[in-house]
Amino acid sequence: MTASIIDDARFGPFHRKMFLLTAGGQFLDGYLLSIVGVVVLGMSEDLGISASDEGLIGAAALVGLFAGGLVFGRVTDRIGRQLLFTLHFVVIAAASIASMFVNDPTLLVILRFVIGVALGADYAIGSALLSEWLPRAQRGRVMGMLITAWFVGAATAYVVGYAFVTLIDSGAWRWALGSAAVPAVVFIIAGTGTPESPRWLISRGRVDEAREVLRRVYGEEATTPEAIESLQVDETAHGLGFAEVFRGGYLRRTAFVGLFWLLQIVPLFAIYTFGPTILNAFGMSSTNDSIIGSALISVLFVIGCLPALRLIDTLGRRLLIIWSFALMTIPLAILGLMPTAPVAVVIACFCAYAFFSGGPNILEFIYPTELFPTEVRATAVGIGTAVSRIGAAIGTYLLPIGLDLIGVGATMLIMAAITLLGFAICVALAPETRGRRLADASATSPVGATAESQAMGDRTGVSHDPSAVDR
């Protein structure tokens, strides 16, 4: 089968713009989830809120992420990507501005929930739209780079929050919470005129609209009968609905995506959120030293993504995620077995864990978009997002309790066991999608000459069909 115009297109300015807009959502996710932790003390003093209220304000966005991913993934597959892609930035900007004027903690909880819903929707909307435009040669690397925007957003939140707290004596938290509206408005303006996914349009039978979108992006040569026919073959509707991701071949994929994302995020979010607390538990008594140590660990989370971005197309998706989980387990086990280890060993273990987590981090955005067809792609991403946020909530809630009740050694061993379970899940379920057309990778029945065993990959991660990469 001849590849479609999208699969074989050259990566150009349009694709870079789409990546930057999609990365904007991840930047805001990292920024908005982190900014609250920076200014929570001043907020508590001004509003007189209780510890329980603080917990609700912190958890509200995570609950919203769960709801937004679960609901708007399906909505995105039903009504399209482009409209919601713009609206979710509008909601984030409006809720951020409104947060500057609250005097009631309950209202702030509601606004944080709304922001979380918009962020959860962004995971489904942005990743589906971007993956459906990317050429296959760059799809893995570009999708994987999205996670780096999250860490950049989180780091920026700490810098901005610190600046507001330092420069403004009273009400710094209001300006910090409202500051997210600035990048949101920038992304609204930059995203004006963003085209709808032609894959989605064709899957809904709107061929003329898809033809016009392709003409705008690629020129007249993209609207030939042959080019349109190749996309129509790929995107012929199969009547797939929400329930289909829990049936047949897609059930296996849904289980894999949800489980690996969940088991990765439980220890990762706990370590990222409570880094200084954990380091203090290991005997790093100086607050400044524990903050510096946590900052170093945060940098390694970003650095670990860089070699992973190369390995997804050389080592492959399957082997990368298997080896990553295996290597992530080792430093956590060492920390669990050696709770009185020297500080240098503790820092080295956490840095190793952060570095090796690069593989699963980038595959959060690659696997869900490659394993499901256009009709349910955003739905699948939304489900993965929702499940992962359950893990985030579990990890952040239970970690301080675990440190208090069973100690840091036993807590680290539990984290190691969770990560080891992720390794077992990946060995059993992880497919190989390297180099395949989006239609082939997402098919559970033959597409062209691609069968289920080809789409899922064999247990070694190597395709049995040498022609699969060339279609």
Question: Can you give a write-up of this model?
Answer:
This protein has 471 residues and is an all-alpha fold. The protein has 2 domains: 194 residues, Growth Hormone, Chain: A; 221 residues, MFS general substrate transporter like domains (Growth Hormone, Chain: A, Up-down Bundle). It has 22 helices and no strands. Helix 1 runs parallel beside helix 6, helix 3 packs antiparallel against helix 4 and helix 4 packs across helix 19. It is globular and about 70 Å long. 55% of the residues are buried. The C terminus is likely disordered. It is a multi-pass membrane protein. It is found in: Cell membrane. This is MFS transporter. InterPro entries: MFS_dom, MFS_sugar_transport-like, MFS_trans_sf, Myo-inositol_Transporter, Sugar_transporter_CS.
Brief overview, please?
By secondary structure, this protein is mainly α. It has 22 helices and no strands.
